[in-house]
Amino acid sequence: MRSAGRLRSRVVRALRVLLPLAALGVLSMLFLLARSPSPETAIPYVEGDGADLARRTGMTAPRFAGVSADGARVTLSAARADPAGTDGRAEDLALEWQADGVTARVRAGSGAVEGGLIRLDGGAEMTTSTGWTLSAPGFAADTAAGRITSPGAVRVTAPFGTLDAGGMDLARAENGDHVLDLKGRVRLLYRP
Questions:
Q1: Share of the chain above pLDDT 70, in %
Q2: pTM confidence score
Q3: What span, in angstroms and rounded, lies between the C-alpha atoms of 21 and 9?
Q4: CB 61 within 8 A of CB 68
């Protein structure tokens, strides 16, 4: 019995030394065999002239949320905005307008905020939670009046077909519901 106990204690002492050495050897091999970083996969910090970026004012990924005068929840975000610039423009805008269980999402290439008026232009597209898609050169969301309008031509894809109109207005009607009103020589192509 004593010889078995001595043998086991010798094995345990040997393993106490050998296992940490083996682990150290494995870690050393991992560091030695690791690939060196390539410049193509490195994270780019500044593209172009860094001094030009330092001179420009602006914000990256600004986000604004509020409530319109009629209770609609409004969320506006952009990829970049320059409120201190000469025209106060923003790039890659996304507007979400939620009222009465209906959501309207507008995406635009550029735009600006002037008080309570949000202008979305540069080829804008609105999608609604009811399945409608509206394309126009631009939309204007007036948070004080609680409406979204497009003074220019609008192309609409609805669940039942396509429509062309001279303009549109999404606002609260007298009965309290939000209504999409297409105006100016509306043309419908019905698909049953």
A1: 84
A2: 0.65
A3: 19
A4: no
